[in-house]
């Protein structure tokens, strides 16, 4: 039998920010200030989980909704389901494909390849509804920049995962998913290995980046004003992982 890995304690440490992130802010500076404020030094082996909203805000991905002029079809859709037509129009503009549009729910495929509601366009936790926040243009590149800047400033290499809240087919509620990754593999492939009983694994590929995002989501809640978490104690695999690694190719997707 294959000898199983010994389990390790896993810590999820919240990092609160004292002030609002604004367009043009140096996010790494803000992050290091927040860590210094709670006297919590990063340690070798830590993983940084960052909610996308502070990344998008720092990158200026805010859209003033007063400047959005909805189409007739967006106005009709919004009127029927008591929605904001401007958000619908913006979501359509940010999409590359409408997956499903029914009963007031708009599911799209973003230019990143993510399948989510309203192309990830969000007005919560922004400024009370005056602006909408878009996803980062390239979440992997954003994660890589934070990863690179932290390495330069701390002389240590920390994987960075940028997350957002997505719904799931056939399941209620939201969970966090990884939309940007740097410094680690997104997937752990256990195929061609044997389980503790000697059975050969043929399809087991674990989405560890998504699992870490979900774990951090339990601490970095929607209303907690805690946009960053440190995950400590997880045996990640160094590598050039990407959020695109988590997107199932169309050729093997049975639901497209």
- Please write the CATH class name of the largest domain: Alpha Beta
Derived from helix and strand composition plus strand pairing, the structural class reads: alpha+beta
Please state the second-level CATH architecture of the largest domain: 2-Layer Sandwich
Counting structural domains, the number is 2
Looking at the structure, the CATH topology of the largest domain is: 60s Ribosomal Protein L30, Chain: A
Query: Which descriptor suits the 3D outline?
Result: globular
List the helices and strands and how they pair.
Layout (H helix, E strand, L loop, with lengths): L10 E5 L11 H11 L9 E5 H7 L3 E3 L7 H10 L3 H9 L1 E8 L2 E6 L4 E3 L13 E3 L5 H16 L5 E9 L2 E12 L5 E2 L15 E2 L1 H10 L10 E5 L24
Parallel strand pairs: 2-8
Antiparallel strand pairs: 1-12, 2-12, 3-7, 4-5, 5-6, 8-9, 10-11
Helix pairs in contact: 3-4
Structural write-up:
The protein is of the alpha+beta class and 256 residues long. The chain folds into 2 domains: 1-61 and 137-247, 60s Ribosomal Protein L30, Chain: A; 62-134, CofE-like domain (CofE-like fold, Alpha-Beta Complex). It is built from 6 helices and 12 strands. The protein has helices spanning 27-37, 52-58, 72-81, 85-93, 139-154, 208-217, and strands at 11-15, 47-51, 62-64, 95-102, 105-110, 115-117, 131-133, 160-168, 171-182, 188-189, 205-206, 228-232. Strands 1-12-2-8-9 form a 5-stranded mixed beta sheet. It has a 3-stranded antiparallel beta sheet with strand order 4-5-6, covered by helices on one side. Strands 3-7 form a two-stranded antiparallel sheet. A hairpin with a 2-residue loop joins strand 8 (160-168) and strand 9. Helix 3 (72-81) packs across helix 4. The mean pLDDT is 91.
